[in-house]
Amino acid sequence: MTVVELEHVLLAGTTGKELSHKRPLIGEVDKTFIIPLTFPDVNNGKHVLSRIGYSGDIWELRVDLLGPGVIGEENVPDPQYVKEQIGTLQSLSPLPILFTIRTRSQGGKFPDTAAQEALDLMILAVNAGVGYIDVEIEWPDHLIQEITKKKSEAKIIASYHSWTGDVRWTGEVLKEKFVAANAFGGRLYIEDCYELGLFVRDYRERHQKPLLAVGMGLNGQLSRITSPISLVTHPLIPFPSAPGQLSLAQVHKARYLIGQLAKRDVSIQGTDERTVRRFAQGLQAAFDELGYPHTCHSDDSDGREVIKVTETLESLDSVLDFVSKLFTSITERPPPLSVIERAVSTTN
Ligand SMILES: O=C1C[C@@](O)(C(=O)O)C[C@@H](O)[C@@H]1O
């Protein structure tokens, strides 16, 4: 049995991992989660955005799905509207933005032929300070060169999608596409993931740039669980931006089941019963929200890690603060604050 004094936890929380959303960039952490937003207007998600974003690292703004009215099969959003949407998202959340325009042949709504409009929007996004720009390698060369020149501080993510279902991970087509993507960016997509794991292993032996390789559809779900960089949806997002996308909570549950996420069982102990109960229920609610397998108890400690709460915590803020720090020290992720708050404030 391990006994952790609360002071230890606090130390880890305050001097160790950051509690804010200031997370390292793609490829610098063990697991990076990108959350594609499919609201036509980001304001529609205003009240649920922080909940959707818990534990995520980057928003993907799917620009081809943005618009003030009904969106048809093809959509070129107005630049002013796009600019406002970026501004709104930046004001609502500190997470960096991945700016993505998907054309119809890439599974989106932007016309395949509207390269100039796409380039103009990408430059607008750079000026608005987005962190990442998705550039599909099938865009004309001049667009790719132009945005690579003008990207400023933004990082380019070179991508490739195939919806045909006949691209093989071990085949020549993919190798060619990869060479094209690797020349200017760092990400690649293809459909069908049977040999994806081997492809990724081989890639890592040869290249430094972070690679996001996922399979679309049901056959691709496993790759979304194992990929170090993954795109995750949330039940409060209108619809997943690609078939087979899982929620972050589902990814955590699956990672636990396949042995990629170690379970922690903790027991809270202390002299003040109410503090202990609030602490335990807040932490358990936070684990549940994000699909972590961990458990938190306020009763007997047999075989569990013990967390000692030596004080009586009266105010909601002080409990919230302690639970948040403990959550972060266990998961290395920022806490789902509103979820913890709800659980703590409803505990007697
Ligand atoms: O490129 C991608 C990946 C994606 O297609 C997926 O399969 O999760 C989802 C898109 O929103 C994103 O632009």
TrEMBL record:
Q: Which domain of life is it from?
A: Eukaryota
Catalytic activity field:
3-dehydroquinate = 3-dehydroshikimate + H2O
Which residue positions does the secretion signal occupy?
Answer: none
Statement: the UniProt record of this protein carries the keyword Ion transport: no
> What EC designation does it have?
4.2.1.10
Q: Which Gene3D superfamilies match?
A: Aldolase class I (3.20.20.70)
Per its UniProt record, what InterPro entries does this chain match?
Aldolase_TIM, DHquinase_I, Type-I_3-dehydroquinase
Q: Does the keyword GTP-binding apply?
A: no
| The entry's keywords | Lyase, Schiff base
Q: What is this protein called?
A: 3-dehydroquinate dehydratase
- Native organism is Bionectria ochroleuca (Gliocladium roseum)
